[in-house]
Please model this.
Amino acid sequence: MVKEIMHRTDRIGTFCWFEQGFPPPWFERYQRWIVSAACFSAVFLALGIECSYVILFVYLQEEFNSTATATGWSSSLAWALTCALSPLATWLFIRFGSRKVLSAGIILLVLGLIGTSFAHAMWVIYITYGVVFALGANFCYTLAIHVTTCYFPGKHYSRAMSIVTNGTPAGLLVLSPTMERLYTYCGWRNGLRILAAFVLVTGGVAALIVKEPTHNPLKQSADDKESVAAKEKLKTSCEKEKYEYDLCSEEETTTQKYLSLIRLPEYWILFIATTFSTIAAVFNVINLVSYMEHVGVENFTASLLVGAMSVSEFLVRGAMAIFSGRCQNMNNLVFLSATCFMGGVAAFGCTAGSWLWLIIIYVLVAGLSRASFYTMCYVVTRDIFGIRLCAESNSLQLIAIGVGCLVTSTITGLSADMTGSYHLCFYIVGSLWIVAALLYTVVDQLTKRKKTNPDDFMTDEEKSRALKAARYGDYGVLLSSDQVYEKFIIDRVITI
Model:
C-alpha cells in the first residue's frame, strides 16, 4: 500500500523523500546557504529576545518595584553568560556536533522563558533568565558563528557573517513590537509563555537543518584521509632534509592556541576595545526605553524608536553583506574604528538636550555602530590572527563581550540611580565608543607592522619552526625564505 501511494505521488511530479532519501539532492548544492538561514533563525530567536529585554524591563520594574540597577542586572548577567561561556559551547560543538548543541540551546531557551513567566521575585529571574536562558542563547549564538566560519572560511566570510548576525536586529525589529503588544494585551507572563511556544517550533526546525560541512576547518579528524596523507608527505620531506619530524609537524592543541593568543599584545588591546564597545552597545538594549520614558516619551513611541534602531542596524548589516564581497581591499579595523567614533559623537549629542529629533538621530546612529561592531568584531579576528586561530579568537572575543555585558547595568544603572537622570550615562557611553575607536586603530597599526617586519616579532626558535612548517607542512615543496614569509607569516600572521 505504501509503495503504491509513493508511485502515485511520483506520477504527479511530487518529490518523495521516502524514496529519494533525506536530505534531497538539491540540498547539497545550496547547503551552506540553507544552513546559514538556519543559523540566522537561531540568532534571531536567541539574541532577538535578549535585545527585546528593553521592553520587558519596564514591566518587571513595575511588577517587583525594583531599581534600574537591580532590574537591568538580569539582562547584564544574561548577556555576560551568553558570551563568556563560549569556550564551553565551542568544546561541545567540537565534541558532539552542531545539531545536538543547537537542540540543547533551544530547549534551554524554552525552559528559561517558561521559568521566568512563573517568577515571584527578581532573584528568580536572575536564575531563569540570567542563567538558564543565557546558556541556551550562548549555545545558539556560538554555534551559529562557528558553523558560518566552517562554511565560509575564505573571501565571503564577511558577507556570510553579516547575514547570520543580522538575526539580532531582525529579531529586535520583529520581536520588540510583538512582545510589547503581547505584554499589553496578555500580560507579560502569558506573553513569555506564548513566546516560548514559538521558540520551540521555529528553533526545532532550525536544529534539524543545521550541520557542519564534511571538511570542517575548525576541527580536523585524525582519521581524515587528507590529513593522514599530508602527514605522511610531511614526514617524508622532513626525513629527506634531515629535519626533526616532531618540530615540523607538531599540531597545536586548543589549549596551545589559546595560550598563543593571550601572549600577543594586540589581543589584549582588542579585548579592552571590545569590552568598551560592548558596554556602549548594550546600554541601548537595557536602559534606552527607561531613558526615553524618563524624558517624557510615551511607551509606544519608545518601542517604535527601538524598532527604528533595529531597522538601522538591519539595513547596515544588509549593506555590509551585499558590498563586503566587492570591497576586498577594505580595512575592516579602520571601518570599525570610524563607526565607533560616530557612535561616540551621537552619544555626546544626547547630553545637549532631550528633544525628540535628537533621540531619533541617536537611535539611527546607534544602530549603525551596533551593526558594525557586532559584525566586524568577528571578522577582524580572522584578519588579525588567521583562520588557524579563528575559533579560539572568536571565543575569546565573546568572553570580552560577556565582560562588557556584565558590567553594563552596574555602570549605567548606578549612574542613573545616583544622579536621577541619564545625562552622565551618555557621557560614559560616548567616551567608551571613542576610546574603543582609538584602540582599534592601535591594533590596526600593530598588525600592519607585524606583517611588514615579521622578524621583529619572532624569536630565533619561532622563525626556525615557522620556516620548517611553512616549507613542508602547508605546501609540500621547498620554498625560499622570502616565499615563506610572503605565503605563511604575512598572510596568516603566524603566532607560535
